[in-house]
Amino acid sequence: MIIVMKHTASEEDIETMIREVEAKGLKANVIRGTERTVIAAVGEERVAGIGSLESGPGVDEVLPIVAPYKLASRELKPESTTVRAGTLAVGNGNIGVIAGPCSVESEEQIVSAAHAVKDAGASALRGGAFKPRTSPYSFQGLKEEGLKLLAEARNQTDLAVVTEVVSPDDVDLVSEYADVLQIGARNMQNYRLLEATGKSPRAVLLKRGPSATIDEWLLAAEYILDSGNPNVILCERGIRTFETHTRFTLPLASVPYVQQRTHLPVVIDPSHGTGHTYLVPAMARAAIAAGADGLIVEVHPSPEQAASDGYQSLNFSQFDEMMCACAIIAGAVERQLGSLS
Amino acid sequence: MIIVMKHTASEEDIETMIREVEAKGLKANVIRGTERTVIAAVGEERVAGIGSLESGPGVDEVLPIVAPYKLASRELKPESTTVRAGTLAVGNGNIGVIAGPCSVESEEQIVSAAHAVKDAGASALRGGAFKPRTSPYSFQGLKEEGLKLLAEARNQTDLAVVTEVVSPDDVDLVSEYADVLQIGARNMQNYRLLEATGKSPRAVLLKRGPSATIDEWLLAAEYILDSGNPNVILCERGIRTFETHTRFTLPLASVPYVQQRTHLPVVIDPSHGTGHTYLVPAMARAAIAAGADGLIVEVHPSPEQAASDGYQSLNFSQFDEMMCACAIIAGAVERQLGSLS
Amino acid sequence: MIIVMKHTASEEDIETMIREVEAKGLKANVIRGTERTVIAAVGEERVAGIGSLESGPGVDEVLPIVAPYKLASRELKPESTTVRAGTLAVGNGNIGVIAGPCSVESEEQIVSAAHAVKDAGASALRGGAFKPRTSPYSFQGLKEEGLKLLAEARNQTDLAVVTEVVSPDDVDLVSEYADVLQIGARNMQNYRLLEATGKSPRAVLLKRGPSATIDEWLLAAEYILDSGNPNVILCERGIRTFETHTRFTLPLASVPYVQQRTHLPVVIDPSHGTGHTYLVPAMARAAIAAGADGLIVEVHPSPEQAASDGYQSLNFSQFDEMMCACAIIAGAVERQLGSLS
Amino acid sequence: MIIVMKHTASEEDIETMIREVEAKGLKANVIRGTERTVIAAVGEERVAGIGSLESGPGVDEVLPIVAPYKLASRELKPESTTVRAGTLAVGNGNIGVIAGPCSVESEEQIVSAAHAVKDAGASALRGGAFKPRTSPYSFQGLKEEGLKLLAEARNQTDLAVVTEVVSPDDVDLVSEYADVLQIGARNMQNYRLLEATGKSPRAVLLKRGPSATIDEWLLAAEYILDSGNPNVILCERGIRTFETHTRFTLPLASVPYVQQRTHLPVVIDPSHGTGHTYLVPAMARAAIAAGADGLIVEVHPSPEQAASDGYQSLNFSQFDEMMCACAIIAGAVERQLGSLS
């Protein structure tokens, strides 16, 4: 790390900070500039931490040099990871498309959706049984009954099931039914939940929180990896900005940025990322063109009747059309959409 | 709610939407403007929900009219709520100051901090035993041992104890030791946790998430209120913006805005809200001047040795000076700092 | 517009607001809900303005119904506009690529860049002669000498020239040399400049300001259109958000959103939108896949020697590779890259 | 500056970058860490610039060490600057309050406002004659006629006049009538305008752009200082964030931050910073408590009739009440409101 001293820092301040650095087991290199002195501290920066050094006398700021995450970094593991779960594969040229309704509402709804998305080429089925909702007055999900309906849909279509888990206590239950455990944006920093999924045999799809920096998101992945689960799929679903015409702002540059920094695959959620049905297909195409390893898309038999998220769901024919366009784009970037058989 | 139709909407689209509105048990009023037709739907808007209506044919957007929260609103309860917990009282002119270290580190640390903040006029002690940390490599807290040390500090000083709870499973345990359960910013939308604290006999301090809108924050409070706990203290601790010179951006206008919309008291956290020790006193004074019902401030015997958040903690003399300045400002706005005896 | 009254508004307040609405030449429709009364005011909303009504007694908020822009709106002109300038055409399936260095630095630099981007398939040349720079200590551009070098590059390659104008006083001069006048992000709300370019015979490329809402951006276009110039190209170049790994956040959902609201073509600037060379090609591809009408890209003979923006410029071979990939994506969305001959 | 090399950088890359650094006249210090090598480049960083170095082979990022502004920095001039203009003084304990309508509308309006704000203790009169407006359909100001009315108001009250200038061509004209030239938020990076005001004998009030970083804002001040005008007042008026309940988010921590970095005085605009009349007094009090050197506040004889910004203007009695409260807060922080006689 680099400790930047104030221009008013005294020699005594500098000496104090050298001692503080050495007390943390780091080696201090002092560089005296024309306006400022900086101390470059060499060693195990992640373990040492930088926090308390900023309180030192005469210190202006402390700049980290290494990324705060390790297991997630491409420096540790240069080759890209492919995550496989049933019919789903994401990474290394496999583009996986996860599709289905926001919430599981009934057997007819989820089974018909499963057939429709499979026919259109999706590689996995999504559907929420445990629903975290902003308002206590909104539909909260069918819970275990919903999980059973998802299992029934899998029985009929073979599609891998991706569904959200909202509490550490539910991880075992959800793991019985699901192929991939989804951690929602609101729970990205629910560390107990991260640790619990890290001990599950299921793959984990980790959504980015709407105000999380990319470093915070990768540190959340680090919690899962560090708990023993190597099968983490990152999911960019949009960040909160001043723009209000879309529900969130979908920063597709996350795709190439994250792919440079980490070996984990990254999928895009154009449904939450835009919040409007009519914007979803364009952003799905753009995500594939940007190099995303997959998509997760809300699809509902009749969006105008949906118990949740109808305004951003595609109906079956809209999804079918989107998949055709995405398959062509995938070909244009020398990749392929598809599912494992 | 107001349903704004597209300028291209047909009469049939309008008829369809009137039927959809009526099917939700609302009364439809059609107003034909020079460019657009709008449908004003009158009735129980919160129950009806607006989501799926946006998917209707010819609909441009749906604008809610009433606030989405109810129990938290001043419309339901016009008089301001005072929350009391041991020596702490916030609301209706009582300004409560909660102070202490980010993390409980040792008996000496927490007990000395408790005495120091009490002497300076604080009304409650803060200190984290269960620590949610961005990195798995950071100090994670002393857990139950930390709770016991907090209880010891209370024994010696009588100060009410405010400490964080991070999991529904811990609510009973933490409630045994604490006077106020703190829900951290990362858990503001951890609904299981909100519901669990809603069933605790302890007051709850609910921090705003860094990307939460004020409506989302008040809906989180609604979960607690709706679960049966009326003693909710709101805590503004800064939002995430493009500004990087401060750790977060502390929007003090939240104070008068929230006080107009809700009856719940609101306190300010100038430590997380700025992220730099030298900015804390100015923002603490400003918060009191803006009408905040209290403060929560990080104070540590020696910030440069702190296991966490040293860069934003005050030492004892800095806190003492801050309290003197705040007491004068409080008098200037005809309120008073202080604790219950 | 919809005037939402407070739940505490009296009958007298409502009467007052009805009179205020009628005094503005609008018709007032009063709708009494279960919790709130709203007044729907019908008529020429843009002319009436909403500002002062919010100060009325008992008013909670005023919601506009129509878009604030008119000439730019698709409601006024349903068919998409194609803007043509020399070899450049954007709109209605024509994808125009504008490429070249951030600043014109020398004859050799700009002429070699012009040849290289033309050979790679670009339809116009960009290059700054008047440079607005954040720091007074940065290179400020060659000014008129730079315009002459751009003209020389056009002579040799026939490529249309796109260059920035920063002051109303310079519009005539720049119009002599350029085919398209660029208004930079910092000047998006420099209304004198907008009006001056509105009176120029040249097309105008209007960049979005980094904190401008889409409505503000389209209102800036409205100033140009209203001054008599119908040839406006919108350029999305990224907004400022909390994300710091990229220089700005490039919200590609702007493309389908803007295309729905306005008839004007929209191009994407992946160079400023990301701020890092290695992210540019992915976002260029994504922009085309999202349906953008064109691109504007920084290309320099040797980015590491550039007087400005080297960190986000492509070299010739990187640009060539990017164009090949974009041409394939364009085909996949049934459009074509290219220039007019 | 610190050049952080990628972990994959070769020895040759490092050698190349050492040569690049030396070619810029800087001295290169190489520090080899456990994961990364960094090069600390010592010398005239502002002149050298960092941009093109980021394009070098094997470079991950380049971190600046010194602030990019110089004349504005407290390092160059440690003592605080007081700016004086007629009855207005801001800085070094003098709190100046600038008040008046958004736009000059008529003689009666501006003269009555001048008397009212003077009686309430304001030290200067504000009023816009040249109005930059988001929509071309909004009131654009009385222009020179407005300046004459401001001069008449000054004749009657002696109050210094603060008014906006929007074009370099108008600087001389406005300087004839005004004591302080205001540069609006939209023009913060209109460098021609900054340079023109830098050559005026009048003081300049420079508003922060809603998406400008503090460094960009101080660099804009640097343009004025560098053009020869030392009398610059900084004005924080809020930044654009995801929060929509207020028009902008007013980050009062800017006050102590900026006061530490620069010697220039900083005033707060609670009117634009909140956008709602009822939030203005609380934020005005908070600004004074935070240590602001002054306020600029919109006051109108009848806000509900205002041609612009009525929704955020105070009427005379509201302003009077605000001033009483602010005077008490000013006393509490050992400063004083007031005007020069």
* Oligomeric organization of the protein chains: homotetramer
User: Which fold name corresponds to the CATH topology of the largest domain in chain A?
Assistant: TIM Barrel
Shape of chain A: elongated
Classified in CATH, the superfamily of the largest domain in chain A is Aldolase class I
Q: Any low-confidence stretches of chain A, pLDDT <50, length ≥5?
A: none
Q: Would you kindly provide a brief summary of this structure?
A:
Four copies of one chain form a homotetramer. With 341 residues, chain A is α/β, with parallel strands linked by helices.
Explain how this protein is built:
The structure is a homotetramer of 341-residue chains. Chain A starts with a strand and ends with a strand. The first copy, chain A, has helices at 11-23, 45-48, 107-119, 144-157, 171-177, 191-198, 214-226, 254-261, 270-274, 280-290, 316-332; strands at 2-5, 27-32, 37-42, 59-63, 83-85, 88-90, 94-100, 124-126, 160-164, 180-183, 203-207, 232-236, 266-268, 294-298, 336-337. Chain A folds into 2 domains: 2-63, 2-Layer Sandwich (Alpha-Beta Plaits), CATH 3.30.70; 83-337, TIM Barrel (Alpha-Beta Barrel). Chain A is built from 11 helices and 15 strands. In chain A, the strands form 3 sheets. The first copy, chain A, has an 8-stranded parallel β-barrel, surrounded by 7 helices. In chain A, helix 6 (191-198) packs across helix 7. The longest helix of chain A has 17 residues, at 316-332. With 341 residues, chain A is of the alpha/beta class. The interface between A and B is large, with 50 and 50 residues.
